[in-house]
Amino acid sequence: MRDNRHILLLQGPASWFFAALGLALRRRSAKVTRIAFCPGDHLFWRRKSGQILPFRGARDGYANFLAQVLQQQNVTDIICLGDGRFWHAKAIALCTTLPDPPRIHIVEHGYYRPGWLTLERDGINANSRFSVDVSAEKPGPPQNFKSSFLRYALMDIGWNLANILFAKIRYPHFKTHALVRPTQEWRGWISKAVKKPFAKISTAGTSEKIMAHSGPVFVFPLQLDGDYQIRVHGPKAGLIKTVQEVCQSFTSHAPQNALLVFKVHPLDNGRINWAKIIGKANNSRCIFLNGGDLDALLKKAAGCVTINSTVGLESIDRAIPTFVLGKAIYRIEGLCSHDGLNGFWNNPQPPDAQLAQQFRNSLIAKTQVSGAFDGSGVKTGADNIAKRVLTAG
Question: What average pLDDT does range 140-165 have in this prediction?
């Protein structure tokens, strides 16, 4: 086992988290190198966090570049943000070909939120090594960290602006991992902000209608089409097509007195007109909720249909019948329904309570660390991840 740890950080979140992580690792005597793929990566980095090594070449040269870095610098560990982005997936694939590969650590938003970050070896969700440990102890409650959407938005704007202004000069081959240009994202947010007062009134009326409904209510928590949990671990048809197919299944097979509520993701910027898409695909028994109280909605729910949202875990914890359409770490017999979506609407089966508790206990114990990517949880998360990475065998 290699004792002198050299940690390589690949592309991280548009925040100070990776800089804090680099500092936390160095304080524990590890050497730290950050690979930069764009000007935005320099923006959220500090010299005291470790050295920064730019990659300015084309993507087809990345594997050779990385192989040289791993060999020449005797890298012992690689930390990636998720396992889906090009840089990370390529690094993971490369390491499988090496005789003495570095350890791969994947960090992501927590499977349970808020208050947790995910840290796993080699992959997450369908690529996870996780297995249920029936002896895992019940975890304590998560810490309450303060965060600011405005601060989050400003960091994202800063990262993207740096790339827009300087990428052609400093990183001529840079391509964003996002599906749409930053300017399109920003237009969506501006439009959403303008419409917010009207949307709030509409959402309140829709929520009252849902709460007053006497028949079964099914919930579909929408995710973000650009999220790698959708792009890598979701149905091949994509998010929009999947929503349309779920609407068709519901209108054809669900009880006539049932409702299906599609709840918008908190970070959805309004670029996709979900109300129009859902409205065209059903006979008014499928409803789009543009906000509202998720807790109240789940208390009303007769079942939850999800691709692989963290809401699925909350649904299981609440003993709500859950159907998973994508690849999810909790897609396990006994936790989720496996008899087909068409039958789920009429015979939703709740999760096994004992298995659900064992699953939660062991998932938190094995994969979750206290912290957050932004706000007051950054230092706690960085310290906890550094500690666990450096004690990993």
Answer: 90
What residue ranges of the chain are covered by domains with CATH 3.40.50.2000?
A: 199-365
* Matching residue, tokens 């114990």: 365
What are the φ/ψ torsions at residue 282 (nearest 5 degrees)? -145, 180
Q: What are phi and psi of 302, to 5 degrees?
A: -90, -15
Average pLDDT, the chain: 92
Q: How far is it, in rounded angstroms, from Cα 180 to Cα 120?
A: 29
User: Considering the domain 199-365 in this protein, what is its CATH number?
Assistant: 3.40.50.2000
Q: What is the pLDDT of residue 3?
A: 62
- Could you tell me the fold of the domain covering 6-150+371-391? Rossmann fold (3.40.50)
Judged against a pLDDT cut of 60, whether residue 2 lies above it is answered with: no
CA distance from start to end of the chain:
8
Q: What span, in angstroms and rounded, lies between the C-alpha atoms of 161 and 166?
A: 8
Phi, psi dihedral angles at 128 (to 5 degrees): -75, 150
Does a cis peptide bond (omega within 30 degrees of 0) precede residue 114? yes
